Amino acid sequence: MSLTGKTGVLGIFGDPVAHSLSPSMQNRALREAGIDAVYVPFQVPAGELARAVAALPALGIRGVNVTVPHKEAVVALLDEVDPAARRMGAVNTIVNRRGRLVGYNTDGTGFLKALAEDLHFSATDGRILLLGAGGACRAALVSLALAGAAWIGLANRTRARAEALAQEFDGAFADTRIEVLDLSGRALSAPLRQVDLLVNTTAVGLQGEQFDALPWDDLRPAAAVYDMVYRQNGTPLVKEALKRGHRAADGIGMLAGQGEEAFYLWFGQRPPAGMMARWLRQHLAE
Ligand code: NAP
To answer: Distance from the CA of 207 to the center of ligand 1, in angstroms?
Structure first.
């Protein structure tokens, strides 16, 4: 890669940011697409976020991704926020449009894209059980509801957090009923017999651990399983689902999908099809 006076600059704001796979994934995509730009990690402490965002137009930075812990705080610092991102209360992609900073959330679009590509799943009229109630769950809830899901169940270790989420979106989506469930085998048995899709939006599985509370025998045979977690040798949830004959996929597709959507927002063109997911799998295998 050779940098010149014309090379465009993009990046990611996070703290920590050193572990992020986005810089090498995006730089690879830029190279393959033949775009003269570079994507840089910026470690931005919470107290510096406002100054970092304000500097984007002055520095001519074309756009950035925003990750933990800034996705919520950044919303108030932008000139314009996409309606879906506003509903999620979180922005993960900023586009610098001639000095106007516009925020989007591509976690939601990346998630729907992964469901379509990896599981051939469409949310329209679907019944989906989400395990969790954190930021990733919120992005999933809003994107599934905007895509026309009929029913979304929320089951979280801390029930009050799921209740707060359900209450916040109570009546917000005409076509979607949101219901809170206990994260326990007994409470999940009946819903699992009805769902089209089960999604893990929690951190469970990151260390190779399994969901103890899941009554697998009750999961409808036709139901698909999506795990937002990803690991080198596959996640326990995906392995168990596949063993039982369900369609299942891990979070690589979502990570690649959010990167592809951000790339599209910045450049108006898509990276080579499947390149980001392939690169991520190869990187994890190494
Ligand atoms: P978060 O806001 O911190 O929420 C964490 C969630 O995990 C909460 O619901 C929490 O429950 C639950 N949890 C954590 N440990 C648990 C345990 N031992 N048992 C049961 N529940 C547990 O984090 P987030 O931003 O939503 O991210 C959650 C996970 O999603 C991350 O670990 C990440 O791997 C994954 N993710 C993947 C992508 C992707 O592109 N593939 C994107 C975003 C996130 P409590 O409320 O009870 O604490």
So the answer is: 12
